[in-house]
Design a protein that fits this description.
It is built from 5 helices and 7 strands, in the order H-H-E-E-H-H-H-E-E-E-E-E. The longest helix is centred in the middle third of the chain and has 31 residues. By secondary structure, it is α+β, with helices and mostly antiparallel strands. The termini are far apart. The chain is elongated. It folds into 2 domains: about 130 residues, no CATH class; about 70 residues, Nucleic acid-binding proteins (OB fold (Dihydrolipoamide Acetyltransferase, E2P)). Helix 2 packs across helix 3 and helix 3 crosses helix 4.
Length: about 200
């Protein structure tokens, strides 16, 4: 029966359905991994991984705010999820493919914005919990999670151990760029969600 339904679709709708089903499958996998604390990325870690995100091996683009990067694999999935299901659901009522694609793109963008806002809110709730970052973060060590551009030219992300828990923060560095995996130490708290760090080996004489 499925093969009959599939063959009855136009090439255009086959592409739309393929995008939608793949995005939906990845979204389900991400969601399950998030709630079991094993997310491979995501824009935000809600103490183990809500995030944002690729940070699912993030396709890092350091555009973002408040702990949420824009150019992440999770956001691409969210976009195609909103785009695909909008195109599928409206394909029978909108005859113009151009208009259908335009509406689907706008819904996809809106869905990404909504999810990013949610993650940003969750992130801010996490950071304003029991930890006073100004008192406890300086001196903590960890690793770079997303590349940190050189000389404060942009933000990356780090994961540090603070009060026995692994936390994720935005991060700047004053020296050379720090690639993912670099051991770091916190030298200053810029704001509640952003730290100034330096490579840990730079402290070794």
């Amino acid at each position: 029966m499925f093969s009959e339904l599939w063959t009855s679709l136009s090439p255009f709708m086959k592409v739309i359905w393929s995008i939608t089903l793949i995005a939906s499958l990845i979204f389900i996998i991400q969601t399950v991994m998030t709630f079991i604390g094993a997310d491979t990325g995501g824009d935000l870690d809600v103490d183990a991984a809500f995030d944002t995100d690729v940070n699912i091996a993030d396709v890092d683009g350091t555009v973002g705010a408040g702990g949420v990067n824009l150019y992440t694999f999770r956001n691409f999935v969210n976009f195609f999820l909103g785009f695909g299901w909008t195109a599928v659901l409206l394909s029978g009522s909108i005859a113009s493919r151009g208009l259908l694609l335009l509406i689907s793109v706008l819904v996809g963008i809106a869905f990404v914005a909504m999810v990013m806002y949610l993650f940003k809110w969750l992130y801010s709730m996490q950071q304003t919990g029991n930890i006073n970052v100004y008192k406890t973060a300086v001196g903590c060590t960890g690793t770079v999670y997303l590349n940190i551009p050189a000389e404060r030219s942009g933000e990356g992300k780090v994961q540090i151990t603070i009060q026995g828990a692994v936390r994720e923060y935005n991060a700047l560095t004053e020296g050379d760029a720090l690639p993912t995996g670099t051991p770091i130490k916190v030298v200053e708290v810029v704001n509640p969600s952003t730290l100034l760090v330096e490579p840990l080996n730079s402290l070794i004489i």
